[in-house]
Amino acid sequence: MPTAASSDHAAVLAEALAAVAPGHFRADADGKGVLTAWFTLDHSAHLLAVAALLRGMRARLATITALAPRGAPPGEHLLAYHFDLGGDLLTVSVTMTTGAAIQSLVPLFRNADWNEREIAEMYGIAIEGQPNPRRLFLDESVGDGPLERLIPFSTLANAASTKALWEILLAARAGDQP
Amino acid sequence: MTATDRPLTTLPLGPLHVALEEPMYFRIQVDGETVAGVEVTAGHAHRGIEYLATKRNLHQNLVLTERVCSLCSNSHPLTYCMALERIAGAPPPPRAEALRAVADEIKRIASHLFNVAILAHLVGFESLFMHVMQTREIMQDVKETIFGNRMDLGANCIGGVRFDLDAEGAAYLGVQLDRVAVDVAQIRELYASDRSIGSRTRGIGILPYGDAVALGVVGPVARASGIPFDVRAKAPYGAYSRLEVPVVSREECDVWARAMVRLDEVRVSIDILRQCLARLPQGSLAVSPLPLVPAGEAVTRSEAPRGELIYYLRTDGSERPERLKWRVPSYMNWAALEVMLKGAAVADIPMIVNSVDPCLSCTER
Hints:
The structure holds two protein chains of two kinds.
Chain A (H helix, E strand, L loop, with lengths): L3 H17 L2 E7 L5 E7 L5 H10 L3 E8 L9 E9 L2 E9 L4 E3 L8 H12 L2 E3 L24 H4 L7 H13 L2
Parallel strand pairs in A: 2-5, 6-7
Antiparallel strand pairs in A: 1-2, 3-4, 4-5
Chain B lengths: L8 E5 L11 E7 L2 E8 L7 H5 L6 H7 L8 H14 L5 H30 L2 H22 L8 E2 L2 E2 L5 H27 L1 H7 L7 H7 L3 H5 L7 H4 L20 H24 L16 E10 L2 E10 L6 E5 L1 H5 L2 H6 L7 H7 L4 H4 L2
Antiparallel strand pairs in B: 1-2, 2-3, 4-5, 6-7, 7-8
Helix pairs in contact in B: 2-3, 4-5, 4-11, 4-14, 5-6, 6-11
């Protein structure tokens, strides 16, 4: 059940967001006075305007989630930007069509750096204006978007391996044959 | 080149490092004995657990998330369960919420004491290190006695908890808390007044308030830089909405302040545990029958020992999550090292790195 406080917060937030970008707002509360709000942008071009508004509201970027929705066309992604607003939580979602790029939030939120570098390398999402676009976790030899294709763990971890173990196993199996 | 036209020296530190048993590479630019710049390079032990989570069913992921990290192993399945329960519309019963807080605070005490013990070790104050670890051992014994394990508690299930505290168990926990409280009071006094601790930690590894805000740091790192944010108080979940949770924060912004915040938070955790024991609600331990989890999405947060832990879960009505993502507190705190280390003495690097209580297991999930 939403509390009076969380309902007030939701109304203020919805009005402020509607003033800067078209999108769909919804809110739910857990009965403990904590607001969880969602704002789905109609178009990714409005992301920076929303981010600037939230920066002005002293929001903290908590993290960014990227996902490839099941059944969506290849290369389409959903990005969810999670912001803390003094204890309330707002998730701003935007759909990235195949081949589209998203603006970096680093100029507004310094801590977007690691988050953006991670979604860029894991999903192959292009981020414009990222001031530090080097790999975060993955080795340079691994191509972009490993979460969207099969990569042997040994390749991902850049691990050296030989055929010795398999030769032993195959020899042992051959020995078991009648 | 520096102002005196001396060339900077590159000091490769890690991936294996004295203050960390987990791999992280620091490429440090050194001007004489002073750090001029730092570049942090991760990725030496990335495990792809989030990808794995989408290949496991919702119940299997309870086991999987508990193994993301050992020191905050209870925080992960707890926050994951909260997300599932939010989507299913099935909040746990009040007794389960209180018992979840019991498990979390026990883990927090052990985690914080471990970090401040390592600080003493890095200072070279080995007798204090042993003293703190001995105190922490009380909490390890508590975990083993109540949960049967010393690290992974297996306390949570979808919709509640898998353990209970009877009168005997509650009395045992109360006695152990009394023992820890006496020790922690002595330990805190030592950290507050000892010259060797103070000379190696005060004024070192400064993270100014403005940088802390801009970098979005969380947990004791944020609270030691004057940001009084604690999820338990600012966005209460579970039993915390019914408990008194004072937020500990300090203004010194240095290594010492981060240690003192943790020690004071141990005292807060002891108090929270006593509140839970005094007001443990009656009733069931979990919702029954287990709810079906429909298509939906949820974002949930908890205060892990290192700070805000956030989970995003998206389901499509099938038994496997469409996406399960978590952002651990250490993830936000690594970048702060670039501020803390700049201008520091090379000899203070281990002390400063330890002060953010970094967790590779969490970061490289």
